[in-house]
Design brief:
Protein name: GTP-binding domain protein
Radius of gyration: 19 Å
Largest sheet: 10 strands, mixed
Pfam families: Arf
InterPro entries: Gliding_Motility_GTPase, P-loop_NTPase, Small_GTPase_ARF/SAR
Shape: globular
Strand content: 25-35%
CATH architecture of the largest domain: 3-Layer(aba) Sandwich
Order of helices and strands: EEHEEEEHEHEHEHHEEEEEE
Helix content: 10-25%
Keywords: GTP-binding, Nucleotide-binding
GO molecular function: GTP binding; GTPase activity
């Protein structure tokens, strides 16, 4: 769900690199980051979520990245780890405007590819979306492997919807930018057809932030790059919470960039039947390279 920032005259859209573990999602995201000119992109940031790492950065496409006089800023996310909690993926996919499904072309990974595609469909359905309503491209990664599965077999297994697909290798960069830029063009076309007036404003952002994802949502952990908390707003516990009702803390929405190296993390504090939504502001360190 793209969001309008009236103050900056920007439209913010989210793209998620999704796929099975070890398929090359984080490597693909880093390749894109390194290929973009610094004047068009923000810093790469990292946040620990359970036993996984969420990587993200933003960029503005030059030239055609403009809708009714508003600059379009794309926020790219992925989650990397051998066992990513489904709640973490569901959180990241909330409000997504486009998906790059990174499939693993290694023959022994085909069952994991299918399970991951099923998970993506289920997560989108939980938000009333589908592979039809959310632009999606298929990145057939590791296609440079000597024993890579045939493209026809991958298409037959993973692509009954006939999504745009690209042979790729995140190691040497083949096809990675092509897949992403194809998706960016599709998302931009959709934004232009809606126009700035038809895109969700800041009041929509508040709804997105404050609606809890799930009671089992992953709790944020201190990032490996050691960001320092700066300031928390409304951090007092719910009124009347006693010792007999211990407090619990849940992640209640997708973290959002608040400018510079600052990120806002929506949280829900619970005590018994009472709950209160707060926003934690973090200053993140930058991962070099």
């Amino acid at each position: 769900m793209a969001l309008v920032n009236q103050a900056k005259r920007e439209i913010n859209a989210k793209i998620v690199f999704f796929g099975p573990a070890q398929a090359g999602k984080a490597t693909s995201l880093k390749h894109v980051f390194n290929k973009l000119k610094p004047e068009f992109r923000g810093a790469m940031k990292v946040m620990n979520v359970q036993d996984a790492r969420m990587l993200f950065f933003d960029f503005t496409p030059p030239g055609e990245g403009n809708v009714d006089g508003y600059k379009v800023r794309f926020h790219l996310y992925t989650v990397s780890g051998s066992n990513v909690d489904p709640a973490a993926w569901k959180m990241v996919l909330k409000g997504v405007d486009g998906v790059v499904f990174v499939a693993d072309s290694a023959p022994q990974q085909q069952e994991q590819n299918r399970r991951s595609m099923d998970d993506l469909v289920a997560f989108l359905q939980s938000y009333g979306q589908s592979l039809v309503s959310v632009p999606t491209v298929l990145q057939l990664n590791k296609s440079d492997l000597p024993d890579a599965a045939a493209v026809a077999d991958l298409e037959r297994s993973l692509n009954p919807s006939r999504l745009p697909s690209f042979r790729a290798s995140s190691q040497n960069g083949e096809g990675v930018l092509q897949a992403l830029m194809s998706l960016v063009k599709t998302v931009l076309t959709g934004l232009k057809s809606s126009g700035a007036e038809g895109i969700t404003g800041s009041e929509g952002l508040q709804r997105v932030v404050e609606e809890p994802v799930a009671s089992s949502a992953a709790k944020p952990q201190p990032p490996t790059t050691a960001p320092q908390p700066s300031q928390a707003r409304a951090t007092e516990p719910p009124a009347g919470a006693g010792e007999e009702e211990p407090l619990s803390l849940e992640l209640s929405g997708a973290p959002t960039a608040a400018g510079g190296d600052v990120i806002s993390v929506p949280l829900t504090i619970r005590s018994g039947s009472r709950s209160k939504q707060v926003v934690l502001t973090l200053s993140l360190a930058v991962e070099k390279g």
